[in-house]
Amino acid sequence: MHSALARVNNVSSLFSTCLMVLLAAVALIDVVSLKVYNAKAKRYPFKEQEFGFVKFDIDADLTPLFNWNTKQLFVYLEAEYASSHGVNNTIVLWDRIVPRKEDAHVVVSSGRNKYKLKELYESFKNTSPATFSLKYNVMPYVGLLTYGEAARTEGHEIPEARDAIA
Amino acid sequence: RLQDFIGQKRVDSIARVALAACTIASFAVGYVLQSLRVTMGAFALSTLLVAVMVVPPWPVYNRHPVRWRKD
Asked: Would you call B47 an interface residue with chain A, using a CB distance cutoff of 8 Å?
């Protein structure tokens, strides 16, 4: 502390230590609770390479997930089924980024899948019934990413393939 | 050269105590107001204040210079 430079060194290292402690405290104090929801689906596959078309309604109030440390929420709809060969598949059909608490009440009426629903073996014949789940990922300003599931439907049988829909 | 060990010790304790207290205070204020911006802003501001109080060679820290012997 014999010179200004020595004092700058001292203060800056103290500052870094305190900053790390502060950020650790912010990251660890997370409090999350859950709520809500409702999802329904219908499907009509399509020939040659069978594509699944899903129509759904979502009403989810995710506002409790927002606290001072939440930067944004990543919400996504997943379909899970077991293929005819017994392999479990999980496919993300639709997603949305929720950047603010005001946008956190997610209401989707007649939503369609954003991403293709297709089976690797080209046909959805003999696959197990598909369950749909609404999941979310809380992205904090400081800290670890946390995941959760907001809702889950019962199994829906995947119907027979049909030709092109007009 | 003038050296003041009492002043140096005082500067060191001021820096340490002030920074620790400001860390806790800015966390508490931000948590109560549920705003991370408040926490980080208060922390940055208080660090700046501590730096201004401590880094420049204020005469108040030089009240007890070492008196070397004349011979």
From this structure: yes
